[in-house]
Design brief:
Blueprint: E1 9-13, H1 22-33, E2 37-41, H2 48-53, H3 57-68, E3 72-76, H4 86-90, E4 96-100, H5 108-115, E5 120-123, H6 126-134, E6 140-142, E7 163-168, H7 173-179, E8 187-190, E9 203-205, H8 210-218, E10 220-225, H9 243-251, E11 255-258, E12 274-276, H10 279-291, H11 293-310, H12 313-328
Parallel strand pairs: 1-2, 1-3, 3-4, 4-5, 5-6, 7-8, 7-10, 8-9, 10-11, 11-12
Length: 329
């Protein structure tokens, strides 16, 4: 059977690694599975020759545009290309341009100015979409992040990866404050920065890559998700749902997650995951999930079914290609 987007040429401008930027690699894989041919320009990890001659990311993108002649250019992230370079790169090139941004924009006004060089803008939260709309960007759409079931999947975990309650991610003061409520339940922490906090004794490692991230959460009885920002942080957008939410659902571990405005669009509280607002509520939800085995299993099964049915990177990239296709036709 022919893939739905067979023959489509895409230039993807995105940083890719096996840690904080792993999602861009999964987006590329999803695009290829949908039948597209994808050329990558990584603005951070340049080829050795490009480094030796000092070619900028703008020069590398311009070269790729001339040689590859893509039907569609997808740029991921605010800093992938300098904002004042978008118009110049598009001046004499065909093809549609799409910008995929996160849930919490750093420089809304700057993004709004650069957005006018793109045909479509996709952002990871409804709050970010409203912010850009308020700056006159009317071609912005909400598109959450997702998961890859071939990567985020149930695994049998042993040794240090087995724990009652797990959080994997960077240490922040907000996360430290919430997770302090869980130490008596057998808390295990993974990620950078925890050994410099009051929870240092519960840190089991730095989690250098995606495989260990999956193993850490797959080995948990209960997975905890604490977003970096919350409604008490007035300078940040607390509406968006992070990647961890979708990844944990696909891994198949019962999840307790802090409330987000966009969350009810994707998962149901009480039947697919458990939601909390305060540290006391987090403690209560984790305790319930640990004590009620059958209920915990239903949560994980329902969330995994929901994630695989509508929240994979295949779903997300297909939506981008459909929107871009409607504009091309």
């Amino acid at each position: 059977m022919t893939a739905p987007f067979s023959g489509l040429r895409i230039l993807l401008v995105a940083p890719v690694d096996d840690a904080f930027e792993a999602h861009n690699g999964l987006r590329r894989r999803a695009l290829e599975r949908l039948g597209a041919s994808v050329q990558l320009v990584d603005p951070i990890h340049a080829a050795l020759l490009d480094k030796l001659v000092g070619r900028s990311v703008t020069q590398r993108v311009a070269t790729a545009l001339g040689q590859y002649r893509p039907d569609l250019v997808i740029v991921s992230g605010e800093g992938a290309i300098p904002g004042d370079q978008f118009d110049a790169l598009r001046s004499d090139r065909s093809g549609q341009w799409v910008w995929v941004l996160g849930d919490d924009l750093g420089d809304v006004a700057g993004v709004a100015r650069a957005a006018m060089a793109f045909d479509e803008i996709f952002v990871g939260s409804t709050g970010a979409a409203r912010a850009l709309d308020g700056h006159g960007v009317k071609h912005v759409r909400y598109l959450p992040v997702g998961c890859d079931p071939s990567v985020h999947r149930p695994l049998r975990a042993r040794g240090p990866f087995r724990a009652n309650v797990v959080f994997a991610g960077m240490a922040t003061p907000r996360r430290e404050r919430y997770l302090q409520e869980l130490v008596e339940f057998g808390l295990a922490l993974w990620g950078p920065g925890w050994r410099k906090t009051s929870l240092r004794d519960y840190c089991r490692g730095e989690l250098p890559g995606t495989e260990d991230f999956v193993r850490a959460y797959a080995g948990a009885t209960v997975a905890v998700n604490v977003h970096r920002s919350g409604p008490e942080m007035k300078s940040a957008d607390a509406s968006g749902v992070n990647r961890r939410t979708f990844e944990l659902a696909a891994i198949g571990t019962a999840q307790v997650v802090d409330a987000r405005a966009d969350l009810p669009q994707h998962f149901e509280d009480g039947s697919e995951l458990l939601v909390y607002v305060t540290p006391d509520e987090l403690r209560g939800q984790v305790k319930r999930a640990l004590q009620e085995d059958k209920y915990r299993e239903r949560l994980s099964e329902n969330a995994r079914r929901r994630a695989l049915g509508g929240h994979t990177y295949m779903h997300r990239m297909a939506e981008i290609l459909r929107v871009a296709g409607r504009r091309r036709s």
